[in-house]
């Protein structure tokens, strides 16, 4: 776990250069206050680990991510105590190596994964529980990402809050740091058409949202209006309003957001949908130019193989990186050794180079469940959706180990 330098000065005056008993091994022994990318290392104390996980009400069905995971203490505890899948993200390579050894020693390598990476780069959107010991500035830098996570995701921070995003609960233990719990709220800003409210047949509900707090107004078709105050607990919205008789009415509704599901069918979403793959290498073979990409039939089987057709019909492809380059005839291949792994045969595209992005147009849904996913151990594709002018993650990319 990590703290920002300015926030632990007093602690470091006492502890700088000290190792923490049990925090290392013969290969590497970290010390309190050692410098990192954005922060200095200070471990979460053992008496706080279980209360952090209990505050989030962790169960075996959860996926726990620990940001700035240090020696891997929290992911290991989560896996051993609750049987969850847990992931740690840590920037310091020595700490990651130590954490991986700790995972092996704890016997939880089948459930715990340690990522050497930057918490501002790595994808942790699949987490149902997030644990932090970072500092107020880093918490607030992460806040825009966290508030876009799936409603109901529980976030627990050791010692530090998130500014004006008030915690849903504060846990105070004797002689220990306070723990802050947030439950990511659904996004309900805007107008909703509602029916079945007491004293109202149909009405328009206008809501303004500040994190988990909401306020707004009910308007009926016959001109009546009432003020609304409410609160979100994940995807559950509770709000109150006054009836025509002056009585306070309280309503609780589930506002769970729609889940996008994509299935087989080239034109399922009309002439929409772009499959994007990157050129990773090129070569000439028998006078023809071939460009190998990191995606192919394992992601987009329909484009690579034309079922039941005597003649191949290419999907429309384009060079997304450099559309203005001089055109040339080429062949676009996937990463496997299968001769059918060809996204485009003898097609004309603006001249390609390694690193260029190729778009397969009019892909609609490219058949997530119909393609041979994880073929040769390759990760699944991410799915992005444009909604209200914003690009949102519909489904993230996953690797083989996450399906175990």
Folded structure, characterized:
The protein contains 6 helices and 23 strands. It is of the alpha+beta class. It folds into 3 domains: 2-183, Vaccinia Virus protein VP39 (Rossmann fold); 190-254, no CATH class; 275-403, Lyase, Ornithine Decarboxylase, Chain A, domain 1 (Beta Barrel). The strands form 5 sheets. A 7-stranded mixed sheet has the order 5-4-3-6-7-9-8, with helices on one face. It is flat, with a radius of gyration of 26 Å. Mean pLDDT is 84; it is low at 2-17 and 260-270.
Please give the CATH architecture of the largest domain. 3-Layer(aba) Sandwich
Taking the alpha carbons of the first and last residues, their distance comes to 27 Å
The CATH class of the largest domain is Alpha Beta
Shape, principal axes of CA atoms: flat
Contiguous low-pLDDT stretches (5 residues minimum) are 2-17, 260-270
Structural class: alpha+beta
Major beta-sheet overview: 7 strands, mixed
Please, what is the average pLDDT? 84
Count of all domains: 3
* Multimer state: single chain
Notable traits:
3 domains; 6-stranded antiparallel sheet; alpha+beta; 7-stranded mixed sheet; flat; Lyase, Ornithine Decarboxylase, Chain A, domain 1; Rossmann fold; 404 residues; 6 helices; disordered N terminus
